[in-house]
Amino acid sequence: MLIELGGVRLLTDPVLRPGFAHINRRSAPPSPEIAKRLDAVLISHLHLDHLDLRSLRRLDGPFRLLVPRGAGPFLRRKGFVHAEELSPGESCDVEGVEVVATPAVHDERRWPVRGPRAEPIGFVIRGARSVYFAGDTDLFDGMNGLEPSLDVALLPVWGWGPRLGPGHLDPERAALAARLLNPSVAVPIHWGTFYPRGRRPGDRLTAPPREFAARVAELAPRVTVRVLEPGASLALTP
Hints:
Helices cover 15% and strands 26% of the residues. It is an alpha/beta fold. The protein has one domain: Ribonuclease Z/Hydroxyacylglutathione hydrolase-like (Metallo-beta-lactamase, Chain A), CATH 3.60.15. α3 packs across α4.
């Protein structure tokens, strides 16, 4: 997700390549403009579909790299000497926009199993508007009231395969998250982009955001859901 607030450009968990490991992109590639004029890149956790070193090397610099506590040594060994670590509750200023790390319930490892570990986080971004980017997470204590008067919640509703393991939100649980967070707008993310090579996706590339919207209409009818196809954008009116 590219988030623009007051002219500040923040990119979250970029994977810009056609695939990684055994996973292929099933949507159009992102626009080259995504990689330009960035003020900061936000990394939520160490998994390959959120922290892709090759994609980070494609980005135009300089930019700040905000990462979970514990990820700094690994990234610095890979050449990203400017990585800045954040723990839940810690914040920093990016050109006048406040970026706050939030809790997340997700696996902290980078594969293989003996790889580095870092505590997963999400981010609340505060400027003229407030935006919550969840990264990958399950429901957690404190989600209710996480950010009063939240404008936009970017909520994962699926993943890159036919099923989800622990530490994820499916459409039902993401709708419960929308009820707890009570944003003005909820945008389902983490769907329709990647899938295992050689596997038939069925409806898993298209159905999760619609299932999410239907459940939000029942559980949190005051929340507006905006479903964006991969590559689409949303402009918030004053």
